[in-house]
Amino acid sequence: MKALVFDLDGTLIDSARDITAAVNAAMRALGRPEHPIAAVHAMIGHGARFLVASALATDDEALIERGRAAFMAYYEAHPIDHTRPYPGVVEMLEALRDDGCALAVATNKPALMTRLVIERLGLDRAGIIASASADEVPRRKPDPAVLHLALARAGADAAIAYVGDMGVDVATARAAGVPAVAVAWGLAPKDARAAKADVWVERPSELLERVREWRKARP
What we know:
The chain is of the alpha/beta class. It folds into 2 domains: 2-14 and 83-217, Rossmann fold; 16-77. Helices cover 49% and strands 16% of the residues. It has a 6-stranded parallel β-sheet with strand order 5-4-1-6-7-8, sandwiched between helices. Helix 10 links the parallel strand 7 and strand 8 (199-201). The radius of gyration is 17 Å and the shape is globular.
């Protein structure tokens, strides 16, 4: 069986406001300056430690760990205050689910937050049957380990494609030897496009049609 695997933040969900709020809660806890959402945009996508280290502009491990703990505590309490699926995403997932397509998430987001967001936004009910996060494997994306774990949890032996909104997602697909799909929305679509994804889609409905075509051609 093959599965379609998605990145989460910036691909399925618009989560930048809640992530920014959690980053700034950590900054306040440590007496550091807060960051505007545009600045945090550039920090998202590489895991919580990278995010906090970037916001703190430090390599002091003890300070980063304190910041990460404060970030996670706030984010766990406020995972979906403003976060929502992008328009058309739920309908796309439901249509793929109804087509019998296995759907999974592979993300650098911590596993606890990944599960919370998927469940509270109902993405599991829309068709996501498995997820894997960077803190569950030895290395974060673009290493393909998290993608491989997502496939294993979905009971799949291969990926139809890996769908994301950033260059790191394209690189992850390349490392795993699967087609890379870049979406026109999200955190860094220009970066994803510059990375020369195999397919570029403007809308979730366009991705739905592409996947249907692939599944007919390569069942």
